[in-house]
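Morning run. Coffee first, then this:
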Amino acid sequence: MIDRPEGTYEKLLFCLFSLGAALLALVTLLILYDVIARNTGFPPFTHTLAVTEYGLYYVTLLGAPWLVRKKHHVYMQLVTAVAPAALRPFICKLCYLLCAMTCGLICYYAGLVTFEAWIRGDQEVRSFDMPRWLIFAVMPVSFALLTAEFGRYLLGLDSMYDGEIGIHE
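And here it is:
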């Protein structure tokens, strides 16, 4: 069950997540059609491979901020599980800081690459031509939102760890 978004920012994250889910459904349908078309003699859609590759990339980046917000992303508690209880809050803050810094750095460089591709007018030439900046544009947006999410954890507004930190079955 998906929690209902509460504020404007959370609604933005949910809209991006929903857009990613819709793209995943489209990719699934394209692949299904392609398999059926190839086995029944109908002409396959010539852009399936390119749309699938771009779609999976976009799905990942559009959904990531919502998943971090709702704590549905993949993370390991191995270090915190074996660390002394007194060190666990410090380890958590260090993890949040490293995640926020990494996402911020990726956001910055992805923004530079996106802007450079836009200025130069680069084109991605596949089964259809696409402006290269459009491929990269989702990355700085997603990583800016991921930076904000890990920043929330770092500031103590939320915690990735509900309840006791340790190994959970």
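Residues 8-40 form the longest helix (33 residues). Good start to the day.
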